[in-house]
Amino acid sequence: MKTNTAVLPIVLVLSFLILGTSSPAAADAGVFTGNGQNLRQISSKSIQLVSIDVSIIPGRGPFLFDGTVPGMDEVHYECAFVLHNLTDKPEEVQVGFPVDSQFAKESEPASSKESAHDWILNYGFIALDETTTYKVEFVSRKPSKDAGEFGAVFVWKMNFAPRESRTLKVSYHIPMSMGLVSTERDEQAIKSSRPTGVLAQELVVLAQMEMVGYITSTGSSWSGNVESATFTVYSKPFERYFERRGITEENTADLPTEDAERFKSSFPVQHPWWFRQITPAGWNEVKGGVQWQYKDFKPKDPIEIRYYMTQLPIRPEEVGPFLEQALRCYCSRLTARNPRAPRLGRSLPSSFGMRPARTSPPRI
Questions:
Q1: The CATH number, out of the four listed (3.30.70.260, 2.60.40.3680, 1.10.3210.10, 3.30.70.240), of the domain defined by the range 7-178+208-314
Q2: pTM: predicted TM-score of the whole model, two decimal places
């Protein structure tokens, strides 16, 4: 059920979904053996992954972005893999496609075929080639800490005639990974030199982060290197939406007065400055986004674009509310340490090096 309160969902969801090292949400097809909790990645000497062509399309989810899970942004993936049997005999391989989203990580292993079927439907996962649409099974498990271990994998079997090539196409969609992160480059090194003034607080150094990701390392389990690989992220339409959307799409006018005031107090800047971080290096601008192209490729580094929505204002009318909130937080800290410290709305001593915050936006 969609809640009418925007403040608590935004805070709770972001704090619950904080990412540590933030593993990407999807991966190349790999060769797997075993089933259920015993599923593990292996290498194939008989099947070569000849080429990879992956299109990654971030976008708005089906509901308003309001801090709730149903309102999260989504990423759509369209993948094409050319696989070739290098031998003169028929070959059967079990293909595994990890989708290690934070939702799958937090979930318990699937306890029934019905729950596994629901995961397939939720992801809209489809795997097919020129002749076959594959019956896909979803395996959710607790991964070990070993490299190549994943908590959520779609698996199916493929059969190859001698020297046969097949073009495997995979499509699916998942919610974008998101969380609250620090924007400091070296948090430990900066702590000792961090200013102690009004703006030295979480309002400045924290950002809401959304990540588009794709794991390539599982593609290294096939025989030899990949002859050609292309990864394209169609990022520009999402970035236009991201800038217009701001912190939330929730209309505060639809909230009860108390909730609306709490929301404005918690998020004084609705359309703040944002920036992105793209890895690995070597990408090029293309129409609609960015692209990586490789030849004689040994899959290793993940594709990642991270979007950081800060709380720093860029619109003149939001500078005043931002400074007022910063000053309020600063005074609250002073009051907690010293009850005689000045409070917001009282005249501040000149030794503080600032004037009381204005109640209306400044003229710029």
A1: 2.60.40.3680
A2: 0.77
